[in-house]
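call fold target=ABC transporter permease
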Amino acid sequence: MTEPADSGHRAAVASAAEEATAQVVRDAPKNEKPRGLWGDAWRDLRRRPLFIVAAVIIVVLLVIAAFPGLFTSVDPTFQDLSKTRQPPSAHAWFGYDNLGRDIFARTIYGARASIAVGLLSTLLTVLLGATVGLLAGYFGGWFDNLVSRFSEIFMGLPFVLGAIVILTTFNANVATPGVVRVVAQVVLSIGVLSWPIAMRIMRSAAISAKQQDYVKAARALGAGPARIILRHMLPNCLAPVLVYSTIALGGFIGAEATLSFLGIGLRDPVVSWGVMIAESRSYIQGAPHLLLFPAGFLVITVLAFVMLGDAIRDALDPKQK
């Protein structure tokens, strides 16, 4: 009597286990593909309040820079000396500057030049530094030593001093340089003085990637250096450079303001936050609103890019998982 009962009990347990297994299979997501590094990072970023806040601020700033006419209909260069340094009011939310120009309009239009300089400087720095660093990390040898020693020369130069030398040399014989010329010079100066950092970051990532099995397998299968660098190493070396470029973009916007404040960067008639801060330095005590609003936008922009870079760094860092 006991043996048949045990057999029936085991059969019931086995049937229940099969049913549970079938239920798990039915509930499993169909055709779910495994996520890679970037997929996991994006999933993690969407859950970070820091990333969401920074992304919203940056999107708003980019819209302001691209379409300033949506936010103000006032000409930022229009002067009315009867309104010189008037405080904020219902007619002019940010008040007027020392020439009677609407500070709100100038702040809105100033976003375009400041952000454009930051974006172009970051693009130049990353393209130059990442390309040289990737080649140096892959080939090594004398080329790596030459590039490393050459980059140390630029890293030893103080940024402000180097920018002063470069910009004053370019404009030594030019009384009033054009707008495009000044913007190009500022971008070039920032890129030339900042590329070693991007180079070192990419070089370290390339040296690490070169030792991986997928690179060795590609080389064993006969892939040339160009294919190995572009198809195998570059996609796996972008993460640290992306983090650096996001944080550096905010720093370069601040660098433009610094150079403009010193009188060697952008200058009138260009409208930028740095130019506005430079024009307000003589009236800070009597009319602090001339400095407060452009400086506030500058601080918020730099902080937003720094927060975005921190969030991306944490999402791409496997130690944070």
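return ok
Residues 39-320 form a domain with the MetI-like fold fold (CATH 1.10.3720.10). The two ends are 56 Å apart (CA to CA).
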